[in-house]
Amino acid sequence: MENTTHKLLIIVGSVREGRFGPVVGSWVAEQARAHGGFEVDVVDLADIEIPLALPAAPPKFAGDGYPRPAGMAPLTSALEEADAFVVVTPEYNHSYPASLKAAIDWHFTQWTAKPVAFVSYGGAAGGRHAVLHLENVLTELHAVTVRDGLAFPNYFTAWQDGRPLDTEAPGYAKVLLDQLSWWAGTLRAGREAAPYPG
């Protein structure tokens, strides 16, 4: 497979007041740009109109005519154009934020046959419960979840000046990005060779 640059979308999933997500998202974007295998874009869900009430017809069947709010257009476009995703999520009550679930549920085909990696943060568990739930949801949408993720337990003491104190973190990020790049190229080649049967 020829070496190529893949379009990576980093999604900051929390919209909570005082959230830490943008700090983590910025650091992940820095790691992805330094990696060299990606054209990086970041979408912060706090900047997107994401209603909880959904239209009657699911997006899987409605296709291009699905009636999304005009303010959601930047998110929909970014999802469609991406070859791969990194979801940055906290953990709320052993799961992930409602904002992230709503953003996922407003879409379907945009995730299909594309890889998703996770960077989580939280208390003692580091957001791992949120990631377990996200893996189930995104598998249902025919996305491919990447095994190696990043989790930051007790982020409130584990970061300083916008960076994790763990000196191994950049290395873990590289493993995640290497896997994501491989899957992005493989799945893009598959989508171009034949329609995904799902």
TrEMBL record:
Residue ranges of the TM segments: none
Domain of life of the source: Bacteria
GO molecular function, one term: oxidoreductase activity
InterPro entries named in the record: Flavoprotein-like_sf, FMN_Rdtase-like_dom, NAD(P)H-dep_reductase
Pfam families: FMN_red (PF03358)
All copies of domain NADPH-dependent FMN reductase-like, residue ranges: 7-155
This protein's GO CC annotations: cytosol
PANTHER family the UniProt entry points to: CHROMATE REDUCTASE, NAD(P)H-DEPENDENT FMN REDUCTASE LOT6
Protein name stated in the entry: NAD(P)H-dependent oxidoreductase
High-level lineage: Bacteria, Bacillati, Actinomycetota, Actinomycetes, Kitasatosporales
